[in-house]
Amino acid sequence: MMKQDLPVVILAGGFGTRLREETEFRPKPMVPIGGKPILWHIMKMYSHFGFYKFIICLGYKGETIKQYFLNYRLEGVDLTINTKTGTITEHQLNDDDWEVTLVDTGQDCMTGGRIARIARYINSDRFLLTYGDGVADININTLLEFHLAHKKLVTLSGVTLPSRFGNLELDGNRITSFAEKKQISNEWINGGFFVCEKKFLTYLSQDQSCVLEQGPLRKAAQDGELMVYKHNGFWQCMDTLREHHYLEELWKTSAPWKVWKEQEKEFTPAVKKTWNNNITGKTEISL
Fold first, then answer.
1. How many CA atoms lie within 13 A of 19 on its CB side?
2. 3-state SS record for 86-129
3. Which stretch of DSSP H or E encloses residue 131?
4. Are 61 and 13 in contact (CB under 8 A)?
5. Regarding predicted confidence, which is higher, 119 or 87?
6. Are 16 and 60 in contact (CB under 8 A)?
7. Phi/psi of residue 51, each to 5°?
8. Of the candidates 81, 135, 117, which has an alpha carbon nearest to the alpha carbon of residue 255?
9. Tens digits of residue pLDDT in 57-108
10. Which of 107, 129, 135, 202 could form a disulfide with 9 if both were Cys (CB 3.0 to 4.6 A apart)?
11. How far is CA 57 from the centre of its chain?
């Protein structure tokens, strides 16, 4: 897939209180599915469609996510270590060619404030945006084409699921009202997977009380600038322990969101490095 320069902003700073069994010691995006953090699954989805630049909004236990990416080069890589010379041979290279910007957006900041605080890292006319706890089999390129065609400020992906999430009132594909956490079943709800024009950032505030799903998206809807891309395929968030178990079971069988293909490892001793107190740049940090 050809590389695409649009950045993908991932909200990964919440406390994950409904999943306390898993999030007491790590942030929710680092809760694993099939041994890999759900954050990794989300990034693999986007990179399958050519998107490789990620801006991750950190908050609660953000140092865990920083540590993960500092050591990411060695994920799944076989090593030969010469304990006398300090030479390390990596027998495979990690296939994921990602550029990851990790931004501390505050421990208690809400979603809108987090996005506003990473604005300085967005160097394009538009950007992609999603939550760090949901997966789908959505075609990101088709979503982007839909967004470019209607020329509005924001597109969110609507999904149908009986849920506690924000309901959308529609006029065709235009969102006329955005109601957060309205208890109505079998309606279109906010599934994340946004495309935003950079101008949408003017709807946001760096104030930690700025909630994306309240003032900013409601104002965009009132201004006729919020559109929905109706996704009828698979979508699932991981908000509770039950949903975590459900995704784990899916990973063992079908995993509908796994749109990428695993690559065969090639045994090619390609990289040698010398020990400098840590293995190949593996660094322990304390923040």
1. 23
2. CEEEECCCCCCCCEEEEEECCCCCCHHHHHHHCHHHCCCCEEEE
3. strand 126-131
4. no
5. 119
6. yes
7. -90, 125
8. 135
9. 999 999 999 999 998 887 778 888 889 888 888 777 777 899 999 999 999 9
10. 129
11. 9
